[in-house]
Amino acid sequence: MAPREKMTREERLEKNRIAERLRYQRIKNDPDKYARQKVKEREKYEKKKNKGSIETVKQMTPRVQRKARKIWREEAKIRRRRLALQDISNAFVTPPCSDKEGPLPPQNINRRTQAAQQKSTGKARNLKIKKQAEEIAQLKSAVQWIKNHLLSHPTLK
User: Fold this and answer.
1) Mean pLDDT score across all residues of the chain
2) Is residue 76 one of the residues assigned to a domain?
3) pLDDT confidence of 154, banded at 50, 70, 90?
4) How many angstroms separate the CA atoms of 83 and 111, rounded?
5) Which helix (H) or strand (E) holds 43?
6) Looking at the chain, which terminus has fewer C-beta neighbours within 10 angstroms, N or C?
7) Is position 33 within any domain?
8) Integer CA distances (angstroms), 37 to 29, 41, 62, 98, 157, in order
9) Is residue 18 in some structural domain?
10) C-alpha span between 21 and 147 (Å, rounded)
């Protein structure tokens, strides 16, 4: 029998991740096991909360709350975009049977999602423009300082 090759750490971790995903998938497919798993997770969360290793929003300072909520908003935005793309890619569009039927009907895109995407791209663009304007102002002030410094230097006159 040939000796087994040793797996690298990354390969072992990837193998374990795949096995864990499959295990959770089996649990989710069985309603009874899934209900027990949810109860276990809830108990584990309560235990951590009582122990103090998890900080609830009420325990956070207002500044930390704002930071956490900002992160949550960003993650929700990313998730909504990902789900919208899945909806678009999963949309069933039938091609016309003949050329006489005309163009394809527009894809079913959620209007709310589309508006949110446009708004977020506009905000990002405005933020980028604002940062660029601030950088230009800083550079102009630096140039002005250098000019004044060079003009006032006695050896350069």
Assistant:
1) 85
2) no
3) confident
4) 14
5) helix 31-51
6) N
7) yes
8) 12, 6, 34, 52, 81
9) yes
10) 63
Query: What is the span of the domain harbouring residue 18?
Result: 12-54
Q: Considering only residues 77 and 93, tell me which one the structure prediction assigns the higher pLDDT.
A: 77
CB atoms within 10 A of CB 81: 14
Reading the block at residue 105, the tokens are 């009907």
pLDDT per residue over 44-79, tens digit each?
Answer: 999 999 998 988 999 999 999 999 999 999 999 999
Which residue has tokens 């951590």?
A: 48
Residue carrying the six token digits 């050896």: 155
The amino acid that residue 141 corresponds to is: S
Name residue 83's amino acid.
L
Q: Into how many domains does the chain fold?
A: 1
User: What span, in angstroms and rounded, lies between the C-alpha atoms of 129 and 135?
Assistant: 10
